[in-house]
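User: Hi! I have a protein structure encoded as tokens and I'd like to know what sequence might fold into it. I'm fairly new to this, so please keep things simple.
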């Protein structure tokens, strides 16, 4: 009976500890989605320099497939060459991004490793740099890195890392609803970009079918989006939360990532709370048993 009471008390305290972790989350400004969630985190207040930064979800918008970019092999290609037969995942980044773009592409690659559909066979991955100063060498290096990370070198023909002119970049980002702004780098020059983090699923006809915001993506949702897009189905908007992942401080000329890993932190708080409780309960049970044994003796 005493052990049963301890277990019931344990369950009650576990619920309280989990609740405490949830209560702590808002104070930490953002959160990361778990698998099965389409988006993550909370919106963060933007500084004036970020007034143009954001994601306007333009579902069913036709991409300008006549635009020409340079691929990772240095060849001129039209966007149209990647469409017609299968859907695509589109990511707008820049290859020298100090952190956020890598987080986005890492999250995408990790999710793709957990879906049955295969890059190249079932869909294309199209990554376009928003920095017109970047060239083929950077694009090629990024492709090699992410094909290796994906773990299937035979899928390389399905990964496309592109660079382009400012006019073509503007035409594509405007169609997608991808707002960004140039910001000073450590040298004071406008060499970096404040931007949102999102990937888009595009139908074989080149229409925007679904947006996924943040830097971690649910494999379940990603697979569903690809299946639906392959049939020409357009999804629904997701909550526009955690689109601004970088905070820029003009006074210090620094950028700080404000994606607080509250899910992980909340889990850590819960683990510590439950661990402490279990330690106290087991010591109490041991003391009670010792006391009972002494009395019986």
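Assistant: Happy to help. Inverse folding works backwards from shape to sequence: for each of the 297 positions I chose a residue that suits the local structure. Here it is:
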């Amino acid at each position: 009976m005493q052990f049963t009471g301890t277990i019931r008390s344990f369950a009650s305290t576990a619920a309280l500890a989990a609740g405490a972790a949830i209560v702590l989350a808002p104070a930490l400004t953002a959160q990361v989605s778990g698998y099965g969630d389409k988006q993550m985190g909370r919106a963060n207040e933007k500084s004036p320099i970020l007034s143009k930064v954001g994601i306007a979800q333009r579902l069913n918008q036709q991409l300008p497939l006549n635009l020409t970019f340079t691929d990772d092999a240095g060849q001129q290609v039209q966007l149209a060459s990647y469409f017609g037969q299968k859907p695509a995942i589109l990511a707008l980044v820049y290859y020298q991004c100090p952190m956020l773009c890598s987080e986005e592409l890492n999250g995408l690659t990790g999710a793709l490793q957990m879906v049955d559909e295969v890059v190249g066979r079932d869909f294309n991955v199209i990554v376009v740099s928003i920095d017109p100063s970047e060239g083929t060498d950077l694009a090629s290096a990024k492709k090699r890195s992410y094909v290796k990370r994906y773990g299937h070198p035979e899928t390389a023909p399905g990964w496309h890392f592109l660079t382009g002119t400012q006019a073509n970049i503007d035409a594509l980002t405007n169609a997608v609803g991808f707002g960004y702004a140039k910001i000073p780098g450590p040298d004071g020059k406008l060499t970096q970009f404040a931007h949102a983090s999102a990937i888009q699923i595009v139908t074989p006809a080149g229409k925007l079918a679904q947006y996924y915001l943040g830097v971690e993506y649910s494999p379940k949702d990603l697979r569903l989006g690809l299946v639906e897009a392959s049939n020409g189905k357009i999804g629904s908007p997701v909550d526009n939360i955690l689109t601004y992942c970088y905070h820029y401080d003009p006074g210090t000329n620094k950028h700080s990532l404000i994606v607080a890993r509250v899910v992980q932190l909340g889990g850590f708080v819960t683990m510590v709370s439950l661990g402490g409780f279990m330690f106290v309960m087991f010591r109490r049970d041991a003391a009670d048993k010792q006391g009972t044994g002494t009395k019986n003796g």
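A useful reference point when you look it over: Residues 2-27+261-296 form one domain. Feel free to ask if any position seems puzzling.
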